[in-house]
Amino acid sequence: MITGIFDLPWWGYVIYTLVVTHITIAGVTIYLHRHQAHRALELHAIPSHFFRFWLWITTGMVTKQWAAIHRKHHAKCETVDDPHSPQIYGIRKVFWQGAELYRKESANSETMIRYGHGTPDDWIERHLYSKHSVLGIGSMLVLNLVLFGPIGASIWAVQMAWIPLTAAGVINGIGHYWGYRTFQPADASRNIVPWGILIGGEELHNNHHAYATSARLSNRWYEFDIGWLYIRLMEMMGLAEVKKVAPKLKIQNGKTHCDLATVQALATHRYEVVSKYAKSLRTTCAAEVRALKRNAVSVDWSALKRWLHIDTDALPANEREQRDRVLKQSNTLATVYTMRDELAGVWQRSTATKEQLVHQLEDWCRRAEASKIEALQRFSRRLRCYA
Q: With contact defined as beta carbons under 8 Å apart, do 116 and 64 qualify?
């Protein structure tokens, strides 16, 4: 029987496969995603080139192509120009054929020119990594066969399928289709689970779309991003430098008026503000819905909850009409949703002066506190404390 250098028990092969695929995942999330695509951190030459070499032999991916396609995904998210949106192509196609969508977009020279700037363009990239990607994954196959014999081919097959399944399928597909939303960016991104381990932290995809340039993907106390753990370890060893992380909302208790700091906090944390607003007013809206139903008025509560998170302009025409019909039935609901839209309008007024924005926010708070809706009054008083 032909064997390789190592003759391991079955669990030894499993552990080896899990280790090497996890290193690949770390390379994708730390090097390709956070470092190259978003410049959320800088990497020392040692880990940077290690990851580039490792990804060459385990995936054959070209850095420029990956970064360009991902940047375009953010720029054109959930539109017909998005390279891999399940909202456009359908979840089945993105999950099972995500790698094909990637290859198709990588052949788009316009995408590479517009979005591929700042990626490696040295001699080894031009003459080896980009030019001979098949040589890299072929070298991995030979290495596995030498180390483990025929079973090395099976390990290699798992390695080759790992990124197309996890990154192209799970993150690009499920990450925009199923899961929970901590923030409300104008896309369908989801956090798949709060513990980012198997896919290096990329499971926290909604957090990433809310703060795309953050080197840390976890935002809540119960969320864990193993990629961030690796980054912090490398930073302590002088091998990485974090450039940006998602900002933390600061509260100045006792503050009773809006100022420029309040406006800046509102704009910076707009996704979190929308989430807090929806959470604060949910009980009020639910009580109003029950009152309407007692008066034989039919209301779709699931739609009302969703509308609390979405700007009116982002709703399809039929849903806008449906929302308008519901709001005509209740002064309380009309106030809650109108005030929500007006609050979003504060950070959307890019042409207003700083003084105008402060005045508009202060006016919003005065009207919120003059309403007879207790939850809205509490939210407004808390909003004034943003610093």
A: yes
What spatial distance separates the first Cα and last Cα of the chain, rounded to whole Å?
70
Mean pLDDT of the chain: 93
Pairing of strands 41-43, 240-242: antiparallel
- Per the listing, tokens 């704009």 go with 267
Residue with the two structure tokens 């280790």: 19
Q: 347 burial class (0-12, 13-18, 19+ CB within 10 angstroms)?
A: middle
Beta carbons within 8 Å of 308's beta carbon, 6+ residues apart: 277, 278, 281, 282, 285, 336, 337, 340
Q: Angle 45-58/10-26 helices, nearest 10 degrees?
A: 120
Give the tens place of pLDDT for each residue, 60-83.
999 999 999 999 999 999 999 999
Q: What are phi and psi of 225, to 5 degrees?
A: -120, 100
CA gap 178, 336 in Å, rounded: 28
CA 205, CA 175: separation in Å to the nearest integer?
6
Are residues 346 and 360 in contact, defined by beta-carbon separation less than 8 angstroms?
yes
Q: Which residues pair with 191 in a beta bridge?
A: 180, 204
Residues 6+ apart with CB under 8 A from 26: 51, 200, 227, 230
Give the Cα separation of 326 and 153 in Å (integer). Answer: 61
Whether pLDDT at 377 is above 80: yes
83: closest CA among 41, 37, 121, 122? Answer: 37
DSSP assignment of 124-190: HIIIIITT-HHHHHHHHHHHHHHHHTTHHHHHHHHHHHHHIIIIIIIITTGGGTSSB-SS--SS---
Q: Which two tokens stand for residue 131?
A: 């030019």
Furthest-apart CA atoms within the chain: distance in Å: 84
pLDDT at 83: 95
CA nearest neighbour of 245 among 34, 48, 31: 34
Of residues 323 and 364, more confidence is placed in 364
Taking CA atoms, 153 is separated from 158, 178, 198, in Å, by 9, 34, 23
Helix ranges (DSSP H) in the chain: 10-26, 45-58, 63-75, 86-89, 91-106, 109-115, 123-124, 133-148, 151-163, 205-210, 226-236, 260-268, 270-294, 301-307, 317-327, 331-348, 354-370, 374-384
